[in-house]
Prior knowledge:
The strands form two sheets. This protein has a five-stranded parallel β-sheet with strand order 2-1-3-4-5, sandwiched between helices. It has a five-stranded parallel β-sheet with strand order 7-6-8-9-10, with helices on both faces. It is an alpha/beta fold. Helix 5 (108-119) links the parallel strand 3 and strand 4 (123-128). Helix 1 (11-29) runs parallel beside helix 7, helix 1 (11-29) runs antiparallel to helix 8 (184-206) and helix 9 runs parallel beside helix 12. The protein has twelve helices and ten strands. The mean pLDDT is 93. Helix content is 47%, strand content 15%. It has two domains: 11-181, Glucose-6-phosphate isomerase like protein, domain 1 (Rossmann fold); 190-332, Glucose-6-phosphate isomerase like protein, domain 1 (Rossmann fold). The longest helix has 23 residues, at 184-206.
Amino acid sequence: MTSHTTNAPGRHMTAEIAEQPVLFDNLVRRAAEIAAIAEQINRRKPRFVLLAARGSSDHAALYAKYLIEVLLQLPAGLVSASTTTLYGAQPDLTDVLLITVSQSGGSPDLVEVTESARRRGALTVAVTNTSDSPLNQVAELSVDVGAGKELAVAATKTYSTTLLALYLLVDAIRGGKAESALEIGSLAQSTLDGSEVAVAEAVQRYRFVERILATGRGYSYASAAEAALKLAETSYLAARAYSGADLLHGPVAAVDGETAVLAVTSAGKGGEAMREVLEVVRGRGADVCAVGSASADVAAALRIDVPVCAEELSPVLEILPLQRLALGLALARGGDPDSPRGLLKVTKTR
Length: 350
């Protein structure tokens, strides 16, 4: 995709995208370690799950919300950190599981939310890539996603390994043995190898576009949100993400022949639900690029195929070509996705 020359733009992001299949294999080999955390969670018998996160990690938390509600049949919600940090809310969190997702584990608001929730009775679990972070110090339990140091500002390997770690955790809570994830490393390598030509075509097709809309349903909604963020932060595009259902409730009115649409659609109920959405979008003249294992089954001008896996694991694979697309577009537009303007690797908010 691009040169590994010492000072080549995007060299870190390129290398970190390529690392992911090996990192997935390493993480699956640690499934027993994650299952031990799940066992402690099961002992507490949580009745509700809250998820706290920011940025890319917020999209991983959105993915976890679907996992928890569908696979565990537990209600789950995303925390608004400011209710604690700015407004001082102190709800009773007895029998609540709080999972805080942060690749750095260093954002003060997430640390404060976790510390406060633990005082108020919640079982707190940190999912991070930094085992000695402040977040790990205040959480009762922790899961290390094991991505290693990430040099590019745009999160790639830390995002995908967080998805896989969350899947392994939820799967273990429901009594699974990571069976569906055993081949995820080889499937990831097949995804990267098999999508390279189509991604390059998409880069050429969209290099001059100024407006991109990403959409997906079910588990894949998180992938659409993450794709939009990656495009915004690396290529400075006006990129927005909507669930396929929400798209038809109003935003579709803004879709026209000048709109590029990234449709994340993988085999399963979420992908099936996207068919009608994309028929409407195509009918409004939008240029649709379908990404995922069900890309051949929907109306699209361009397709980026992804191998079939269990639907609940599809975001781990479908995000890979979307990361490559963000990388390629940033380079084609003259940018360096390793260090986008105005961004730092760790963003500290309150």
